[in-house]
Amino acid sequence: MDEILQKRVLMIPAPFEGHLPSMMNLASFLSSKGFAITIVRTQYNFYDISADFPGINFFTIDDGLTESDMSSLGLLDFILELNSLCEPLLKEFLTHKDDVDFIIHDEFVYFPRQVAQDLNLPKMVFSASSAATSISRCMLMENQDKWLLHGEEARSKLEELVPKFHPFRYKDLPVTAYGSMERLMLLYRNVSKRDTSSGIIHNSSNCLENLFTSAAEDTWGVPVYLVGPLHMTDSATTCPSLFEEERNCNNLNCLRWLDKQGKNSVIYISMGSLAMTQKEEFVEMAMGLVQSNQPFLWVIRPGSITGQNSLDSLPEQFSQTVTHGDKAFVVSWAPQKEVLRHRAVGGFWNHCGWNSCLESISSGVPMICRPYSGDQRVNTRLMTHVWQTAFEVEGELDRKIVETSVRKLMVGDESKKMRKRATELKKLVEDSVSIGGSSYGALMSLVDSIMSS
Ligand code: UDX
């Protein structure tokens, strides 16, 4: 233990809701093993989480970026700018600090890579997503020309399977809703440079994607550690949310409302922290949910509906259902992990963010996938064609499609089959994080690797 205490690890998370909690779970684990952990955070999206992580040190880099920079640049250019600004700041910080032995950084904050190299510090990349996603970015870079096609030629090409990347089609590769293809390629080139790292850590499990683990090892030639789902490890601590102020009374009351609903009867709808919905689609969604006659719990994140700032202009029938009925509950942010674990929740309509996928899998809840951007397409294909605990709703939504999709997920034979598979998959991930399981073993190998670096 004395020797372990000497290793000091600097961890640098990406400042986004879908990234920080999983890295903090890894930090808690490493801290529980005796490593001295310092978390370096950006000023952008900063909120204080230190009280929830006693024993871990925190330092903030003053990148000077604000929410209005994010709005004017868009997510893609914002991430590129964040990396350019932070590289010299981290170098300055580390030049005056001689107590760092190892660096772990999120794949989207790649600025520590050069700094670590200059200072001769070993480093690893942490991906809050799957190994399949990492490979899919390389596939997209190799096949960008497919997105230059037009009309019918483009449509049929994108439906084809990507060679040596079964079961993904070109259209499942992680293109973005947040900027141009050219800027995305620049970002992915930066994110995908990994051969100088001593390893790649994924918040995923071998039982979910062992095929892609070996493919990732072949691609980068370094060890790949599938250590997740990290929120299921014994040392996991709930990281306060960026949307913490949304943990208001009404939002927490959704759990009491769920207590009154029948087993597996409620469909939970949430689109994560970034995805947007067009107003027309939102109205069709609202009416389809009402028409499905299935109880629903819906997270409507403030500002997440393009062209609508409040719920006032929703159809009367929807407002009546939400205001007066027992059938519906609307919140601005939900305690999602608790919601998914609740016995009343029988289905999840989601954009397929990786954390949401892992949380639905670890709760045994089948899903409807409606991917919005990036890795969500990859995750959707994994859910629908590898694990088969979900189906995708593609194309333009109308209320009838919503109604039939909800009923398909919640009742009937297909629903039973998906629920059975989801229950089996839940058991597999539980085993993987338990002593003797693959994720547990990967965490232990990671400890050994940092120790011997
Ligand atoms: C982003 C990307 O969009 C996603 O594709 C990538 O895989 C991770 O980073 P996000 O879109 O926010 O994440 O989705 P997701 O990965 O699902 O993360 C959302 C997190 O917020 C989940 O941990 C979920 O539990 C939490 N959440 C969401 C809540 O706690 N309450 C809510 O109401 C909604």
Automatic annotation (TrEMBL):
It comes from the Eukaryota. One of its GO terms (molecular function) is quercetin 7-O-glucosyltransferase activity. It holds the Pfam family UDPGT. InterPro entries: UDP_glucos_trans (IPR002213). Keywords: Glycosyltransferase, Transferase. Belongs to the UDP-glycosyltransferase family. This is UDP-glycosyltransferase 76D1. It comes from Raphanus sativus (Radish).
